[in-house]
Amino acid sequence: MDQQDKHQITQNLTSLMDRTAFDSSLESKLLEKDIFTESMIERIKNGDKNTQKRNFYLEVKRRGPDAFKKLVEALTESGNIAAARLLDPTISEEDATDEKNQKVWNVPNYQENSGNANYVQPPVLKNNTKPLEIRVEKAANSVTKTHQTLKTYKMESKPRGLALIIDNENFDNEVLPTRTGSLVDANNLDILFDQLGFRVTVRRNLPYYDMITEIQKFSNKTEHASCDMTVVAILSHGRQGLIAAADGRELETEWVLRQFNNDGCPALKSKPKFFIFQACRGDEADYGILPKLSFPENRSDSDARAVPMPRPPEATSSEAQYKELSWEDMLVAYATLPGYVANRDRYRGTWFIECLCSVFMEMSVELDLRDMLDIVAERLQKYESEMGTKQSFAYEVRHFYKKLYFNPN
Question: Does the pTM exceed 0.85?
Answer without folding.
Answer: no
